[in-house]
């Protein structure tokens, strides 16, 4: 005789056995689900790592202390360090940064550190920098740095960078071409200028009204071309490193006043009210008077050019005792600079959208030249602006920190 299971177990024992089997099955299913989820996570992690590894740009992740937590293969290839050699080390120790002149940029001034501190930084594309490889060689670099946020706090940053050696070589070739072409243009333009002045002066006979008007148009157009060629030459010399600074004791007040006098015709023509204030006495500073005049002329002519008729311009020059520097301020009530374009204002050939239609003669080189000169003179140039409310440009010049002569590179 065959016995059924219920003949050996009570109903409660059978129910307990069934519940136990169901629990075991549920646990096995859960473990299987966890295993699949873990496998999926590992696959996704492997995919993410493969994607990061295959990125052509160098990539480095640092924690909030500035220590490296991840680098990709492009980082290793460009800098000569392996991942094992750099993980856990401070970024500054592994990747020193130099400016164009070969001077090491301190960590406090590096974009990565500023982003770690919560500062919003816009990269200055007019100021290239170099990264140093493991073998101490260097290469020009372009980079983007972004903060890593968790629960509203910055826990680190990620930087991507690339070697722009080829771009620099192409840019140098273009600059050399512009320099050569500009030099070749100067001779015929000077000839046109000279003969036009002779004709207008009546050296070859008296002119009638129409002849005078036509020649004046030729002369003004030629002057614009001369101004453009000179600007292109200045830019090419800066980019090629052949622009030489020759500082000497300079009376900044006299220099600024000369520039103001040169602009007087254009100021009066637009009926602009110009208020000029010089703090007295002002100390002499070590500066290249010719290049500093170019800076002031560019800033003041821009203020005049982009201020409507009957507007206002204020120019102030004061000494700052604590910083041992002079501060030149030029404010206008003009068109201002759109906020979304303010980070580009010192870029080569850039012109803001709101002035393109109002002024057809601008080149977009004046502010680039001014910024380059001031940066390489040990000073600072910055601005504040609001569209349709005007702009204020600030130039800070140290009393005397420059050597006898140096090359602008």
Mean pLDDT: 81
- Major β-sheet, in short? 6 strands, antiparallel
The succession of helices and strands, N to C, reads HEEHHHEHEEEHHEEHEEHEEHHEEE
Strand order of the largest sheet: 2-1-6-5-4-3
| General shape | elongated
β-strand number: 15
Helix count, DSSP H or I runs of 4 or more residues: 11
Number of domains: 4
Which structural category do the helix and sheet elements fall into? Answer: alpha+beta
From the alpha-carbon coordinates, what is the Rg to the nearest angstrom?
33 Å
CATH superfamily of the largest domain: Histidine kinase-like ATPase, C-terminal domain
First CA to last CA: what distance?
107 Å
| Range of strand content | 15-25%
Helical coverage, percent range: 40-55%
Query: So what's the CATH class of the largest domain?
Result: Alpha Beta
Assign the CATH topology of the largest domain.
Heat Shock Protein 90
> What's the architecture of the largest domain, going by CATH?
2-Layer Sandwich
Give the low-confidence spans.
401-406
């Amino acid at each position: 005789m065959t016995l059924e299971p219920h003949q050996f177990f009570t109903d409660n024992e059978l129910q307990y056995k069934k519940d136990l089997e169901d629990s075991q099955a549920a646990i096995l299913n859960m473990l299987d689900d966890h295993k699949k989820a873990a496998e999926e996570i590992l696959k996704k992690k492997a995919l993410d790592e493969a994607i990061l590894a295959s990125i052509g740009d160098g990539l480095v992740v640092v924690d909030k202390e500035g220590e490296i937590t991840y680098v990709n293969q492009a980082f290793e290839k460009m800098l000569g360090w392996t991942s094992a050699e750099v993980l856990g080390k401070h970024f500054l120790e592994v990747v020193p940064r130099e400016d164009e002149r070969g001077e090491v940029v301190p960590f406090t001034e590096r974009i990565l550190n500023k982003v770690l501190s919560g500062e919003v930084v816009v990269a200055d594309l007019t100021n290239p920098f170099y990264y140093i490889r493991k073998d101490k060689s260097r290469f020009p670099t372009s980079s983007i740095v972004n903060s890593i946020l968790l629960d509203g706090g910055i826990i680190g940053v990620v930087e991507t960078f690339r070697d722009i050696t080829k771009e620099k070589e192409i840019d140098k070739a273009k600059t050399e071409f512009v320099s050569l072409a500009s030099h070749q243009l100067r001779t015929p333009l000077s000839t046109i200028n000279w003969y036009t002045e002779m004709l207008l002066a009546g050296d070859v006979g008296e002119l009638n009204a129409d002849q005078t008007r036509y020649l004046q148009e030729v002369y003004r157009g030629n002057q614009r071309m001369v101004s453009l060629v000179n600007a292109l030459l200045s830019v090419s010399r800066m980019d090629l490193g052949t622009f030489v600074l020759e500082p000497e004791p300079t009376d900044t007040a006299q220099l600024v006043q000369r520039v103001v006098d040169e602009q007087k015709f254009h100021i009066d023509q637009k009926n602009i009210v110009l208020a000029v204030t010089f703090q007295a006495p002002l100390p002499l500073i070590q500066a290249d008077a010719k290049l500093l005049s170019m800076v002031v002329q560019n800033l003041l002519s821009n203020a005049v050019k982009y201020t409507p008729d009957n507007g206002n311009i204020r120019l102030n020059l004061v000494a700052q005792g604590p910083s041992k520097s002079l501060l030149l301020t030029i404010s206008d009530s003009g068109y201002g600079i759109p906020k979304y374009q303010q980070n580009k204002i010192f870029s080569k050939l850039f012109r803001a959208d709101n002035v393109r239609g109002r002024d057809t003669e601008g080149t977009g080189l004046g502010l680039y030249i001014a910024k380059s000169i001031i940066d390489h003179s040990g000073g600072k140039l910055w601005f504040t602006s609001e569209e349709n409310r005007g702009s204020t440009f600030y130039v800070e010049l140290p009393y005397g920190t420059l050597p006898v002569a140096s090359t602008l590179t």
